[in-house]
Amino acid sequence: MIDGCFTLLERSGLSLNNITAVGVGVPGPIDYKKGMLKHPPNLPGWRDVPLLDILEDKLRLPTFLENDANAAALSENLYGAGRGVDNFVYITISTGIGGGVVINGRLMRGEDDNAAELGHMTINFDGPRCGCGSWGCWEVYASGTALARFAREGIASGRTTLISDLAEGYKVRAEHVFSAAKQGDEFARELIQKEGFYLGVGLANVVNAYNPGLIAMGGGVTCEWDMFYDEMIRVMKERALKANIEKLKVVKALFGAEAGMIGAAAVAFNS
Amino acid sequence: MIDGCFTLLERSGLSLNNITAVGVGVPGPIDYKKGMLKHPPNLPGWRDVPLLDILEDKLRLPTFLENDANAAALSENLYGAGRGVDNFVYITISTGIGGGVVINGRLMRGEDDNAAELGHMTINFDGPRCGCGSWGCWEVYASGTALARFAREGIASGRTTLISDLAEGYKVRAEHVFSAAKQGDEFARELIQKEGFYLGVGLANVVNAYNPGLIAMGGGVTCEWDMFYDEMIRVMKERALKANIEKLKVVKALFGAEAGMIGAAAVAFNS
Known about the structure:
Two copies of one chain form a homodimer.
Chain A: H1 2-12, E1 22-26, E2 30-31, E3 36-37, H2 51-59, E4 63-67, H3 68-79, E5 88-93, E6 97-103, E7 106-107, H4 138-142, H5 144-156, H6 162-167, H7 174-182, H8 186-210, E8 214-218, H9 229-239, H10 242-245, E9 249-252, H11 259-270
Parallel strand pairs in A: 1-4, 5-8, 8-9
Antiparallel strand pairs in A: 2-3, 5-6, 6-7
Helix pairs in contact in A: 3-11, 5-7, 5-8, 7-8, 8-9
């Protein structure tokens, strides 16, 4: 995987002489002092990888690691949908749920650079087990992976739905649910309504925890947010403290997959 | 109630000439710009009270309002159990659950000065209704009020327990549950074990949300924390992200009921 980076760099035709510093967005948790990836739950096999040393040895350039969700939050706060917002939350709804939080104009890193693990806030202590080892985390209910899991569970229990046809024998993914709903599939529409509900529950937690002025949402699932936006906002407003939602804006993030990259570059640029 | 403050001041024999500024800890939400209590859920009848104007008119001294949980957090961070901790959370477990959060050495106020509403983070979206209008908030499960409610529900469903005897016909309170448990009452012990569980669930959320270096806990319920501390910490460690608990300390707050007062004074003093 690291070799892949070097190959890409060679193919790009970029000369290292034109590069002053390197910023890398990586999944947390990170040991910033040692420049090490600790044990990212979504990168099995990576454990205590001294990525900073590996990259600096090869590139001979000052290199900076940043948690990818933090990097994305930073890019949105500096250049994107949350530009100039002092109290800002970025949330990505994708395979998992991640986020980054800006408080008083500064990225909230926490004591171990591992704050704002939004996807791992419990919304039901009796809920299903999460990859992190806990139960009923937000991402177990509202990530793209969760949406696909709910679909598969419904199919296994005998629900008639277009979703299975669209998956063509492959494993059902969140995209299949959205496609089926667009074709009027009843079960897919129910699932997406539930997706909106679960997102709204978690957003209310975010709103009560950080009282942000603006929340920007990115990640694959938000590409289809017209299909669940109303329900998500309704549930959030029903559950969050009234004082915290009077002026709150919830918008789509400006950058897509490149948000983490832009933020990581900003980290290197500003260091 | 406001008149009561003036009466107390007169009785104290303090001369206003010896006072430079006044800090007041009040339940949130507050409109800081207008110096107004908005609609504190735990102070029914108080709605849009211009407390700052009322006090300044009477006292003729610069006056500062601060959310009481924030004030308490500040006192613990400046002079108490969390002294010098850059990323610090104060939690009070009492009638409700409140808190204050310090990030990068600064009080996290949020966009509407209403951040860190820890007691109103959902831990079970299907849970009982909360006074705030949401469902399954942390304080619905783990406040002193919740502990007493669980006891009353058990008694109503026919559990044999000393708790009813100790309440002597009055409404059961959390204190009765702790007293009964000390006398070996089985049901009371179960309830306190559950109290530890629910506190641990919420602490894990706090740990994942803010990644603090230290959490200080105060409020009436913590007076008895020897009885639930082990279970609370066990559940927190089981559910929080490992990276966030390696160095974390959870301690009792240093100040008692006077924490809010000390913090409010500090706000006035530092303004």
